[in-house]
Amino acid sequence: MNASSRPHSLSRHPEAHRSERVGWLRAAVLGANDGIVSVAGLVVGVAASGADNAAILTSGIAGAVAGAMSMAAGEYVSVRSQADTERADIAVERRELAEDPDSELEELARIYVKRGLAPELAHEVARQLTAHDALGSHARDELGITDTLRARPLQAAAASALAFVSGAALPLAAVLLAPHQQVEAVAIPTTLTALSVSGALAAWAGGAPVLRGALRVAFWGALAMAAATLVGRLFGVQV
C-alpha cells in the first residue's frame, strides 16, 4: 500500500493543538499568578508593618480563602455571561434555519467564498455541511463557536480557585518556615522564583517564548510586593 492510499486514521502524526487548553489554562494561570502575587504582597506588607508571625499568617490565610472565592466567582460570572451569549446566538441561528433555510444556505456559501473557495464549490460545501449539521456549521463558521473553545463556567471557576490556593500556599509556607524577622527576606525571593517558574510554564503550555513569559510575570510580581512593602512601612500599624 503506498502513502497516498494509506487510511487517514493510520496517520503517525496526530496533531495536538494548544487551543484545546485555552478554557482552563487561562483561568489556571491567572489564578496561580494572582494567588502568589496577592498573598505574597499581603504577607510582605503586613510583615513590613512590624506585625508578629501569627498576625502575618492569619492575614495570609484569610487572603488566600477570600481570594480563591473571589477568583472562582469572578471567573464563573464572566464565563457564564459568555456562555449565555453563545446560547442566545445559537438560538437565533436555530430559528433562522427553521424560518428561512434557503437564505441561511446562501449566507453559509458567501462565508466560504470570502475564505477563498470558488462560488460553485462554496455552494456545494455549504449544501453538504447543511445536510450533515446545519446548526453546527453556522455556529462554527458564522459565529465562531466550537466545542473546543466553548465557554465552560464551572471548569473555569474550579481551575481558577484551585490554582489560586496552590499559588497562595508558597508565601504562606514562607511565613511558617521563616524566622520572624526574616519573613520579607524569605518571601520576596521565593515568590519571584515561583512567579518566574509559573510564567515560564504558562508560556511553554501556550507555545509562547518561555523567557519572556517568566520575566513578564516576575516583573509585575516584584512591582506588587514593592508597593505592599512601601505601604506596610509607611503606616507601620501593628495588626
Describe the structure.
This protein is mainly α and 239 residues long. It is built from seven helices and no strands. The chain has helices at residues 22-48, 53-99, 101-114, 119-141, 153-177, 183-206, 210-235. Helix 1 (22-48) runs parallel beside helix 5 (153-177). The protein is elongated, with a radius of gyration of 25 Å. The relative contact order is 0.19.
Break the fold down into its secondary structure elements and pairings.
Blueprint: H1 22-48, H2 53-99, H3 101-114, H4 119-141, H5 153-177, H6 183-206, H7 210-235
Q: How is the biggest beta sheet arranged?
A: none
Look at the helices and sheets and give the structural class: mainly alpha
N- and C-termini, Cα separation: 77 Å
Strand content: under 5%
Order of helices and strands: HHHHHHH
Summary of the model, kept short:
The protein is mainly alpha-helical. The protein contains seven helices and no strands.
Which key phrases capture this entry?
239 residues
